[in-house]
Queue: 4 jobs
Job 1
Amino acid sequence: MESTPRSRYEPLRLALLHRLRELHDELQSAESATLADAAVTAHEVSDQKDAADRRQASSIDDAVQRHEHSEVELVLSALRRLDEGRYGNCQDCDEPISPQRLQVQPAALRCAACQTAWERHGPALHPTP
């Protein structure tokens, strides 16, 4: 008996949902930490080095949070594609994405060849919808 695309991808759906929960937890923790740090900093006496260290740490935290927000969008997009029956095919060439690639990167939009081309030439040649 051949499995349906939906059941074939069920382990990947579960992995995507797990990753989504992790990302939400990480973002919530980061937001709580930012609020706590702001409260402590407001009552602290510091010098220029302390202020520079805090700005650098804040900049790094902001970059991590932007990356996590982007990953949330990719995971949600993959879950939508699963629900719509479009999951597992490359958005550029419409060929199947290898099961090994999906296992490693369940939110992958492109097959390895198209992803390499996209990274090499940028989104101008292969825009993301």
Job 2
Amino acid sequence: MGIKKGKKKKNGRLPFFAIFPFSFFVMRVFIKTYGCQMNVADSLRMEEVLLKDGYSITQSEDDADIILLNTCSVRKSAEQKVWSKIGELKNKKVIIGVTGCMAQEHGKKIFHRAPNVKLVCGTYRENKISELVSRAVKEGKTIDIAIEECAESPGNGKHKSTTNICAFVPISRGCNNACSYCIVPSVRGPERNRPAENIIDEIRYLGCKDATLLGQNVNSYKDGQIDFVGLLGMVNEIDGLLRVRFVTSHPKDAGEELFKAIRYLDKVCEYLHIPIQSGSNRILGKMNRKYTREHYLGLIKKARQYAPDIAISTDLIVGFPGETEEDFQDTLDLVMEVRYDSAYIFKYSPREGTAAFELADDVPTDVKQDRNQRLLRLQEEISLSKNRELVGRIVEVLVEDVSKENKDRLMGRTRTNKIVVFPLKDGLIGNLVNVEIKEATAHTLYGI
């Protein structure tokens, strides 16, 4: 049975149904994201590109024809999770793709170690994902890791596949710092800043209530005469936007003007993520962090002068090469002095391609584990203590969704980035509400 000839459209092409008269199969894509908020934003951009090109996005791995693993290479444990996942998928009749930082770092080696992987797509290549998927379907294997060819204004693609409540918006990609433990400059390249107007246009396009501006070092942002504080001022003027957050602030570039913005720009939230990594000046020097413990503590003092209720979080690494018990005690002492609201605590992991990889990884595994647990316990106690200070107080919460743990409750966040869970009521999602805190754990506030 042949295709019945009929009238062509004005563009000279046959109607779609004439080319495929019997059925149309839409390939379903499942994207699993590992790592930081930047990877979340990249996954959303891939979703948007795939949707525009006729693919369907599924939230179920079992329903997928294509599974994309958007990966992180910051720690060895993050990569091990991906290799383990690839192993789990080896008998599934699907196309498997590895994207993101791990793809950029390992390239073709992924095909050799995992023959069931058919697609490798590096950082900055989200706009190519549909083309790569198509090639993988037709040709069996494909790869694109040409980081040097990325657009000079990265991340210009807008992603509407996120909710209209909270959104991650990259303002820059890559990093110009050379922290000795960090692989990011290798897999994401040098810092590239997006034009301020492009960022503003994207936030307006998204129509979100809460925008988190993303960068490896937001404080070094520059677009002509517009610096990061200037960008915050522009974002603060967007109609309909209720809250503005940002990560990550590098201590060597943060300063008083940033803290003034937190105090005087009404939409900029009283929350600061500012990694210290170690409380020891000796270790900070080996990490090439370019600031001292004393400088960092001065920043914290100044931030709290401008915003007394500010919540502060950090990143900490234990077991860096050469770290002694005295060095670790300096970190414990600093954490007790600052009293962080929360902290992301990691055991040092050697990463090939970093300066620290050349150093002897001489802190025994059991010592790393012990220091990690001691620091976690200390921070847990501090987080619980600070959260309990909020019991009995009324806090403003932006309601984000129904709680994943309890469908009879709603969840949202305070301006200080604390998660609040409270009884379900209709019509509150996406709105600001006042909640009285009745109970607190180290990680969650419960209210009515």
Job 3
Amino acid sequence: MRWCALGCAALPAIILAVHAQRIAAHQPNAVSQPEKPYVVLVSLNGFRFDYPKKFGATHLLALAARGASAPDGMIPAYPSQTAPDLYTIVTGLYPGHHGIVAEDFYDPARRQLYRSRDPKTADDGSWYGGVPLWSLMRQQGVPSAALSWPGSQAKIAGERPSYSVPDGDGRVSDAQRIDRIITWLRLPASRRPHFIAVSLADVERAARSSGPDSRQAAAAARHLDLLLGTLERDLEAMHLPVDLVIVSDQGMASVGGDWIDLDSYAPLGGFITAGASLYAPSEAAANAAYQKLKAADARFMVYRRANVPAQLHFNGNPREGDPVIVARGPYAIRALSASAANSHPAKGESGFDPFLMPEMRGIFCAEGPDIRRGVTLQPFESVNIYPLIAEILGLKTPPSDGNVNILSGILNSSAAR
């Protein structure tokens, strides 16, 4: 670890990261696995597709040039928020299918609220559908690892990652998260994880608090780019067959105006709400709210859940609410004006329709022994990362919404396992 560079003030967090590591029951690599490659999946949360050029992220640009990339971005699942889309990336399922439909939502069947920042719900595997890559690896006899990734502290599909670090409060810095990747890869071959998923949060924080085009966001992006350069050098020095896949959960847009309060257009008494999601006490109440809201404001569209446009894949899960509000631009919408009376919207926000707003697109680039050099892709949906990584690692996958053929062209012929 880079102790001197991080400084003494970081020592408590480093100690926390080291000693709080969760290690699942020991499971050595299956006999056939040590010959296979390693995949390190890193999400740069909130890193918009145009940031590498806009902010001069030279390491990312060089990595993209050496490997495969999508210069015009990767399309996140709707809603384009961290918890839903990061979990989509590791399951290959749209949020309506894996169940994490927003950062916060209500489950009418359970009669409970899920909050992505509350360990009581975020670490409870019963909320999560699908089989995330780390659980799939464990099921097939291979160690895996994850850090700061939604669901990585929960037991899902009967498994947890072999190695993980609790970080619900964000005290483990991005630099420490990068260090943890190298620490895991330095384990003996019999215990070394062949899949590692880590998300980094500093750019998203800066873009939300100061705006996605701010100097603070630019500084955070360049700092993160330097960390990635260090990661690349460390990986190269290890002489392991590592495929490095860099993504982001979504982009970021500048918010226009103050809050739009849905209860100023329709009476929502008796509704349960979470953000802009509405959970009606009855079908009659749902239809009444829909009739009031559908022509209330040109800044958003309102749908009965079954009629949400098919391309959003957000029309079949009761956790999505009903009626469903879809912003027509970068507007901050909430159900209840009293929910945060003295607050103002963040300067940068996500969660919007990625087909309507290109600012929601994240990044994609990949480099390694299994990745062809100099390949550029048109924008594609994030559900396709799951079958790509499974193909590299030779994993048998359950059905998903992704299609292995979408990204198979970036693989060398030897990558088919």
Job 4
Amino acid sequence: MNLSEEKTAMSDVTRIDTAGVQLRREAGSIDHFWNVLTDEYFTGEMIPGSRRVRVTEVVRRVRELGLDEGEVIVVYCSGPDCPQSTDAARKLADLGFENVLDYDGGLTAWKEEGHLVEATSAAGA
């Protein structure tokens, strides 16, 4: 865990900030990078390099993909007021995943830091 990653006292979820996401992306140390917004809140914006895995489908998708519990998974949603990434991180932790990072700043923080997003019309993962 580095300065841009912080385990919260209230939960077992480790949060990561924008700088941490950037550092991990540049280092290639993210195995899976997921936008976990449900269809109700998904606006078609994605952080480049991420894929869509709805929070409601996390358990099913993990089983389908046959992921290893040691893989690094970063989850994000729309921003700090959105609980969906924390919900997804908790589901993954409950499944035994040890390297789950909740980018709770999400799309809002990403854009505020001047990073580009991709527009997609795809509603599915």
